Structure formats: C-alpha cells, structure tokens
C-alpha cells in the first residue's frame, strides 16, 4: 500500500475521539485492582482485629497516607509519561515526599530510642514477610495498571514500567495497611519501601516488552 | 549529552517543519478552520533556534505549529479533510526528517513513514491540547526511529555481515520511495471483526451506521473493530521488522 493510500485509509470516515476513554479505563482498572488486593488481603492475611480502635489513632492514618500519596504521585507520573513529549514534572516530588517524610520520622524515632532497642524497632515482628506480602497483594493491581497503560502511548518504556509497577504496589500497600500490625515509621521506612520497590523493579524489567506499541 | 541529542533532534524536526511550511504551506486548503484556531502561544521558548541564526525562526516555527495544530485538532473532532491535510503535511516533514536521520538506509524511509503515520493515528487521543503538537509528534517519531534502530541492530547481529555489501548496492533514489511492506496485504490477515469495519469504513468510505448494517455488528463494535484493527496492523508491522 502506498503512503497516499494509507493516508486515505486513516483519514476516511475518521471518527471523533472519545476524550474520556482513558480516564474511564484507568478508573475501572484501578478500582478493580484495589478491590482485588483488599479481597486477597482479607483472605490470605485477614483484617487486623483491632482495626476499629486503631483507626482512631493518627499513626494509623499517617501509615495509610504514606503509600496513598506515593500512589497519587505514581498515577500522575504514568498518566503524564504515557503521553508522548510530556515529562512527569512535579509528580516526582509527590512520589518522593512520602518516602523522605517517613525516613525522617523513622530517624527521629531511632534517635529517641536506646541503642539496644533500635534494631528491634526497625525489624518489628514481620520484617521477613512484609515485602513479600506487598508483592503478593500487587498481583491483582499489576496487570490492572499495565492494562490501563495500554490505552496510552509511553515512549520511555523502562521508566514507565517502573512507575507503573510502583503504582500497583503502592495501591497494594494501602490494602496491606489494613492487616499489618507494625506501627513504627522506622519499620515502614525500610520494609514498606522494599515491598513497593519489588514490583517497581519487575515493572522496569517487563516494561519494554509489555508496553511496546 | 543525552539531552543535547534530544534537543538537536527536536530542532531538526522543527526546522524541517519550518522549511516546508514557510513556503509549501501557502496552499493551505482550509481557511474555514482558522475560525477555531487556538490562542497563539507566546511563551515559545522551545521553538527558538538554539544558535539564534535567524531572528524570525521562532515565528515561522510557531506558524507551522499553529497550522498543523488547527488541522490536527479538527481531525480529532472528526473532520476527515482537515485530518487528511494534516497527515499529508506530516508525511512531507517525516520524509525529510528520516532521510537525514538514516541516509544509509533510504529504502527503509517509506516503511518508517508509514509506521509513524499509523502510530500517530493510533495515539491521537493521547495528545493534550495544552501541549505543543510539535513536541508530541517528535516524541512519537523519535520513539519509532529508536525502535527501528533496536530491531535493526538485533537483526544485524544475527545476520552475516556480508549483507552490508548487498545493502550498499541496493540503494535506490525513487522519490517518494516505495514502501517494502504492504499494509494492504497485512489487512487481509486480520480477523473479520476488525477487517470488515476497516474495509467498509476506511477503504470504501461508508459511514459507521452503514457498516454496522452490512456487517451485522453494533455501531460501537464497528468503531472498536476499526480501532483494534489499526492497532493490530501496527503490531504486525513491528513483527515484520
């Protein structure tokens, strides 16, 4: 087919584009993915029994806010990077601020603790499993996010794959907060961060294959 | 260094657009679209020539950007004539851009032009009207060019290097060069749900409603079929590289 014929084919009967289609696809994917993570969390780990009382403490909401803000930042970043020629811009700050805040809070906690207590505070009760629990809860969100990304046109596939993986794991981490018994920022600053980075790494690895267009 | 490369490539495409538009585009066919022309952007930092050779380069590029944008945005709203004019103008720029980028592989230029046209079409909903169109187009052209380099490198690492000599003799100077792959043939291999809507709407020019009646599909299935079919065509073109 000659290029002129291709131009004819592409322009012939061209329909008006649906400007809301991408937003609807992301809304559907993220809601279903998050729902999947919550259900998986409830079945595999169980909602923590004292959730009703713990939900009245500010620490619980600070813990929820940490992955939640990371998810918002990662969402803005992927939806910007998914459009050719657009940079993520301020979205990087939104991704970075929660990590920095939690690291600072964790450092303050450790500063105030006796040297012998510091390591037990960081390790908590669940350091061995926490990152892998988050990885497992990312199983519903990861394909959901990548499916939504197929409606955009990313040009930096490895980077976008990493941020999409981070978005998936940050949503999974919000779900995990409903189970996780750890209440120290020193714990979150290490193990939550590792848990969120694992799917981001997998996303960077698979991005060039899954997102090519 | 990387950033400089990108900016260099960017200004190449931009000057290609300027070179064509400053002169070729005087035959601008559709004056009615100017009524819906977007507000002129005055910030123009990205359009300025880095060397500052021409004082009015910024203005010319701005005009090229504005003309293409008006046509493209009318196309997004479903105006086939404006969209065809946009694709034709873009094709001229792409040929110039690619001939300079891959002078040693002129045979591949027309294939790549078609790849990029299809990619621009399939990604057209990702353009945000508050961003410069030139940056959006350039990012797509650059992405497809990099993809081409990658698959070429992979292919050459598998093949006997003697092929390079054959390439040297095979250079032809046809203008516009022939595409080597035939999109029309690829189209025949698509499943009916995608092929029939494309054949009736895009080749025969029937409306969505008429196509729905002939094929027995719903109107939304017709639109989805066209959309998915064109995406599948792009994927098959990729597979052939």
TrEMBL record, chain A:
Keywords: Membrane, Transmembrane, Transmembrane helix. It comes from Caballeronia zhejiangensis. The chain crosses the membrane at residues 26-47, 59-78, 90-110, 130-147, 159-178, 190-211. It comes from the Bacteria. This is Anti-sigma F factor.
